[in-house]
Known about the structure:
- The chain is α+β, with helices and mostly antiparallel strands.
- The protein contains 19 helices and 19 strands.
- The N and C termini lie far apart (about 65 Å).
Amino acid sequence: MTSRELREKFLKFFEQRGHIIIPSASLVPEKDPTTLFTGSGMQPLIPYLLGQPHPLGKRLVNSQKCFRAEDIEEVGDNRHTTFFEMLGNWSLGDYFKEEQLSWFFEFLTKEVNLDPNRLYITVFSGDPNNNIPRDDESVAIWKELFAEKGVKAKDVELLNSKQGAKLGMQGGRIFYYDSSKNWWSRSGLPENMPSGEPGGPDSEVFYEFVEVEHDSKFGKYCHPNCNCGRFLEIGNSVFMEYKKNENGSFDKLLQKNVDFGGGLERITAAANNSPDIFEIDLLSSIIKKMEDLSGIDYGGEGKESFRIIADHMRAASFMIADGVRPSNVERGYFIRRLVRRAVRHADTLKMSKGSLVSLINPIVQSYADDYPEIVQNKSLIEETIKEEEDKFRETLEKGLKVFEKISVKAGGLISGRGAFDLYQTYGFPLEMTLDLAKEKGIKVDEEGFRKEFQKHQKMSRTSADKKFKGGLADTKEETVKLHTAHHLLLAALQKILGPQVKQRGSNITSERLRIDFSHSKKMTTEELKKIEDLVNQKIKEGLNMIKKEMSKEEAENIGAEMEFGVKYSDIVSVYLAEDDKGNIFSKEFCGGPHVKNTKDLGHFKITKEESVASGIRRIKAILE
């Protein structure tokens, strides 16, 4: 069974049961400032899980593209990836445990044709400290479902992985685990959840690869949550009915929700009885190309490098398609980390320099029919990957020589300062220094590195605050005019270059304006002229600068531009550049000040366009 066939089966299965298919959201969360990436299907649905009515109803289903940065270090084994698709179905206060567990079991055993004897279940053992009961209801449902297939389902108490390794399977099929394994919220454990955050107990389904021998380095005995690879989690039904209150205890939500997530790649691997998810179609096509480029067989040595490159290139491709560009901060840092790690492993496989870009084609071909953005941005993805590899290689050779010198002097431990110098001067992520150190059998002062990094961040922020306080140097008349022109310029950039352009910084004095914005390449003379002409056209049209007070949510819904990195209050000011007929050219979160009408600005002229960072351009302009 191919991944595409399985995806279609899942969507159709739940559509036939009254669910509306919704599209995958971007990897960049639109209305969730708490996280850098969309890491689960439920993230975009938080308001509806909390009780807000969804415009499409109470039953939803989709396949959501996800990225989990915390799994980077896990990639290299037979089942972990940073990028994956999460098959999801939701009940927003409609059906609950009985329907959900029955439907998912039916999907696995009838649609995917999995042997029920290979399926094992985990459930929530309860949390007395938070007054959350044990989930005996799910256990009763599962026992009945297995009995219908002629499978006896004994329940066993394990509580955690340590106990599981000590006690083993004990003839069980349903296993009680505590909140470390069978509780789900975006923040993890109940005690880590902030007030207002929803969560709930869950029931996970594992598939057993009977051909895989238990590895005792993971514990004396195997159990469903063992990391030896014999068991693979393929689906998780979360019964989201709790919300943490301000006192730290839990209240019941107004509605009982079902939030299901199942890894597309993992279920496909189970459907094909392949314990290695890198052998399914979506990933094997990338690995086949790497075999051609390296002349090395995936079945031999270097399997870990094959897996890391395949995962990292796929993740980077989707992130670039969703507007992320390599940099040293936030989302861009993770693209940079993925590509640079892939470069290191490509060298391990003796792939030729610059060959990583050849892997984009099989990625695009695999997803072309389901994610058009990956096709539309193919050239941009290839350009970005190539540019990032070239930049890294410029400093890699020098950095490796410096690393050799540092490691010789290290005496078994590379200092935090030494690791930070490698990061700051040669672009070595801490993870790369750790990898290199591991190869030499020496350690790295990770805590010392983090202290140096935090010191550097604090100094950078202090410098930036002095230089760009509020974006405006003062409130003189000319500064106010340039501030208004800045709004028109950002809107013009988005009209000419595309809506993916976002402001990444600004500085406005009485002499000139400056804007930093996301864009992957140098602008052409023609593009600059079009932008300059469009701004001047809007100045001549005499647009009214109208200030409106509204809720932050309403401002987001109308598409008002937000300043990068700023946290806004619940009520915000939005400035609209609007003509007399009500046509809006620009809309931004902004407190002012501005001129009343753009006809007061004069003539707009761009004086300089340049690069300030990877994927970030800068324009300086004046009013004449």
